[in-house]
Design brief:
eight-stranded mixed beta sheet; hydrolase; peptidase activity; viral release from host cell; 2 domains; 23% helix; HK97 family phage prohead protease; 209 residues; Serine Protease, Human Cytomegalovirus Protease, Chain A; five-stranded mixed beta sheet; alpha+beta; 13 strands; 3 helices
Length: 209
């Protein structure tokens, strides 16, 4: 999945990407009891989840103390032919710093299963099809937080309600100027220019002698 970050003229950044690919098997996941399974979330499940919860949060690392935005504000969630797509503009310093330093590691979403069916794949591993879910949050993962790609992870929200998360590695594309690096380059360029000017001055003095 792709996470794209672009710097805007107003000083904010725009994050776009997919938190989940719908109607497609996940990698093999491992439950808390060690059993393995694959999972799919249907497009209909995503559409209903967005419709029934108008306050889905955008978090950093599933941390409810780091709420970046929500669907009540600027976070836009839509379901397209790929899956669950998110789009948000933010001035969150932590996300900007992480993007500049290449510390973004993936994306994730948190949910509770309300209705599911189970079938068996050809290799004998169960496939859980999520037909109805309640989505509580979308997370951008920043190092040292690493995506738990193949593990069923459980979290608790601000009301201490348990929910599951699914992490995904993202193809991250960053289009942000690193201000510190730009300033350093400008300083180096100015230093080189000053040295050149000094060299020319010395050469002129030598020529006049």
């Amino acid at each position: 999945m792709k996470l794209q970050i672009r710097e805007l003229e107003n000083g904010k950044i725009r994050l776009t990407g997919w938190a989940n690919i719908a109607n497609q098997d996940s990698k093999i996941l491992t439950d808390s009891d060690g059993s393995q399974f694959r999972e799919q979330v249907t497009n209909e499940a995503w559409e209903e989840a967005i419709r029934e919860n108008d306050d889905i949060k955008l978090l950093i690392n599933h941390d409810w103390n780091k709420v970046v935005d929500s669907t009540k504000e600027n976070l836009r969630l839509t379901v397209d032919t790929v899956g669950l797509r998110y789009d948000v503009e933010t001035d969150c310093d932590e996300l900007i710093r992480a993007a500049k330093s290449n510390k973004l590691t993936g994306t994730s979403f948190g949910f509770r299963s309300l209705k599911s069916d189970t079938e068996t794949c050809r290799d004998g591993i169960p496939r859980i099809i999520q037909d109805k879910i309640r989505v509580s949050e979308i997370s951008i993962l920043i190092a040292p937080k690493q995506p738990a790609y193949n593990t069923k992870v459980e979290c608790r929200d601000v009301e201490n309600i348990e929910y599951e998360v699914r992490d995904s590695k993202s193809d991250i594309q960053v289009d942000i100027k690193d201000t510190e690096q730009e300033e350093k380059r400008e300083e180096v360029s100015q230093l080189e220019l000053d040295k050149y000017k000094a060299f020319i001055t010395i050469q002129k003095l030598k020529a006049d002698m």
